[in-house]
Amino acid sequence: MEDQKYRDEDDLPEKLEGFKNKYAEFDLNDEGEIELMGLKRMMEKLGAPKTHLELKKMIMEVTGGSSNTINYRDFVKMMLGKRSAVLKLVLIFEDKANSTPCKPEGPPPKRDIASLP
């Protein structure tokens, strides 16, 4: 992206490649757009299934109400933008969950009554 807003973004080429791969995975009809069913499949795969109404709301949030499908440009703007879209948060959470171990190693620390909330 040649946009001035994104020039100072760290590791932009790597991020764009990752976004492209993630986007292509859910472009079910290979037309360059994620439709309602592609988004539904994405959310189910991420373990966060949504109703059709919630999915439509997510699409409206990403596209700004201009379309019923998410094109690649809107997807990248959402992922690089400062806006906190639900879809962006879910995708970021999935990447963090896949990259770091969630379970601590070793025995749990000793606790006493004073440390409880």
UniProtKB/TrEMBL annotation:
Residues 108-117 have a biased composition (Basic and acidic residues). It is a peripheral membrane protein. One of its GO terms (molecular function) is calcium ion binding. It holds the Pfam family AIF-1. Residues 14-49 form the EF-hand domain. Its main location: membrane. InterPro entries: AIF-1_EF_pair, AIF1/AIF1L, EF-hand-dom_pair, EF_hand_dom. Residues 98-117 are annotated as: Disordered. Keywords: Calcium, Metal-binding, Repeat. It is found in: Cell projection, Ruffle membrane. It comes from the Eukaryota. One of its GO terms (cellular component) is ruffle membrane. This is EF-hand domain-containing protein. The lineage of its organism: Eukaryota, Metazoa, Chordata, Craniata, Vertebrata.
